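Researcher: Good morning. I'm working through a list of sequences from a screen, and I'd like to move beyond sequence-only analysis. For each chain I'm collecting a predicted structure so we can compare shapes side by side. This is the next one on the list. No need for commentary yet; just the structure.
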Amino acid sequence: MLHPLPAILIGGPPHSGKSVLAYQLTQLLRQFEVDHYLLRACPDGEGDWSNEAAQQTVQLLRHKGSFTADFVTQMTAVLEQRMLPLLVDVGGRPQPEQEAILAACSHAILIAQTEEQLTTWRQLTTRLGVPVIAELLSSLDEPDALLATCPMLRARIFGLERGATVDGPVLHQLCGL
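Model: Good morning. Structure tokens for this chain:
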């Protein structure tokens, strides 16, 4: 079913910066009063609080759940019945039984630390028919760099660490600002 509102999957391997990127994007979109919702479609216990609280507290309180058939069904229903544009944080290790969540998304932003890691996610989104609109290399050492804007955004993004604020050209390009 073609849905008029986007649901943008944010995908990549574990520890690539997906959840921090999702948080930073939603903060910037809120600042510019862009209606949307950040859907945490992964039962990993993360939310805005995990970026805003002291990281020692986060480590104590965060409780990872598991993907159940009921969770996948509920997330897929939310995606299919969306009433706002969505950013969708899907977690870093999707299993075949979770792929319905990814397939219900309209587009994808992929993020990884290496090109090789991006390849795995490119193959997955291609197989599921989810067009990729941006590919990001996450770095804690090298500064932001826009590498290409057509046919999709390709960039390096710097500093995606919990509790840190990112505000650079790559984030603004992703938000269309």
